[in-house]
């Protein structure tokens, strides 16, 4: 069993800088999310922005992933590959960016909408963003890791949505994916206790319908909802501090 890395001040500063760049990338791309734009055009702009800040997009060639970010539309839960698909009125999409700056990783994603989006989709997005906030509010020394997922799942059930249990948050910073796994649905007071200097992502994927997902047999990456209903996701990289948390993926 590999162990959770407790980051030192130098590492925290490096991961903070990388995380800030990842967050800035998500802000930078917002005005380009328009009807008629191909998702591979967004990807190219994101790659250029990251490289112009002396950083590298972490997803490019990661386990064979071919692009510089993940773009997941509508029923796509995660790991959507930017393509010649054009955005159209009513689409909802997640853009997930991970940067490597001076060797340090920062990982964040958020939802975008194209043109006029229906009420059900807007509600799903709002609840998913709130679920991430609720998870982050559990981050403090001595609290059990499992309480993040416990509180997220409890909230999402009240909305009638479901938490995707097959993909988790993760330790991040020195590597792209480090221990521990952060489950977004977990028993109360389960898992290890949080400790200052831990850095991990919280990235709930929330489905309108059933929690079950399918991975594309064609590209080996694209994860969709089993029932083809909508899915949404928000992600932050979070540091455990002496008295709570610091969201690192902020502009
Ligand atoms: N950024 C994703 C995460 O939040 C991972 C993408 S891996 C890829 O963990 F290979 F699909 F890009
Ligand atoms: Co992540
Ligand atoms: Co990510």
Task: Give the SSE layout.
Elements: H1 9-29, H2 39-52, E1 55-57, E2 70-73, E3 76-78, E4 92-101, E5 104-113, H3 119-136, H4 146-159, E6 162-163, E7 169-171, E8 178-182, E9 199-202, E10 205-207, E11 213-215, E12 223-225, E13 231-233, E14 236-240, E15 245-247
Antiparallel strand pairs: 1-4, 2-4, 3-12, 4-5, 6-10, 7-8, 9-14, 10-13, 11-12, 14-15
Helix pairs in contact: 1-2, 3-4
Structure explained in plain terms:
By secondary structure, this protein is α+β, with helices and mostly antiparallel strands. The chain has one domain (9-247): Creatine Amidinohydrolase. The chain has four helices and 15 strands. Strands 1, 2, 4 and 5 form a four-stranded antiparallel beta sheet that branches. Strands 3-12-11 form a three-stranded antiparallel beta sheet, with no helix packed on it. A three-stranded antiparallel beta sheet has the order 6-10-13, covered by helices on one side. The radius of gyration is 17 Å and the shape is globular. The chain binds 2-amino-4-trifluoromethylsulfanyl-butyric acid and cobalt (II) ion (2 copies). Residues 107, 170, 201, 203, 235 line the site of one cobalt (II) ion.
């Amino acid at each position: 069993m590999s162990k959770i890395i407790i980051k030192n001040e130098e590492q925290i500063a490096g991961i903070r800088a990388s995380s800030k760049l990842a967050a800035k990338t998500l802000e930078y791309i917002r005005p380009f999310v328009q009807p008629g734009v191909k998702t591979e055009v967004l990807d190219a702009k994101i790659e250029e922005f990251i490289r112009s800040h002396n950083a590298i997009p972490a997803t490019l060639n990661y386990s064979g992933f071919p692009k510089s970010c993940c773009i997941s539309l509508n029923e796509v839960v995660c790991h959507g590959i930017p393509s010649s698909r054009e955005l159209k009125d009513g689409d909802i999409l997640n853009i997930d960016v991970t940067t490597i700056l001076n060797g340090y990783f920062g990982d964040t994603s958020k939802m975008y909408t194209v043109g006029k989006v229906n009420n059900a989709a807007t509600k799903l997005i709002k609840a998913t963003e709130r679920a991430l906030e609720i998870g982050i509010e559990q981050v403090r020394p001595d609290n059990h890791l499992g309480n993040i997922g416990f509180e997220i799942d409890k909230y999402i059930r009240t909305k009638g949505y479901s938490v995707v249990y097959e993909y988790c948050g993760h330790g991040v910073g020195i590597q792209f994916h480090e221990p521990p796994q952060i489950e977004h649905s977990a028993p109360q007071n389960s898992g290890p206790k949080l400790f200052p200097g831990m850095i991990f992502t919280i990235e709930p994927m929330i489905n309108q319908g059933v929690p079950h997902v399918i991975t594309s047999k064609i590209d080996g990456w694209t994860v969709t909802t089993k029932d083809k209903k909508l899915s949404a996701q928000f992600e932050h990289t979070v540091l455990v501090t002496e008295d709570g948390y610091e969201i690192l993926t902020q502009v």
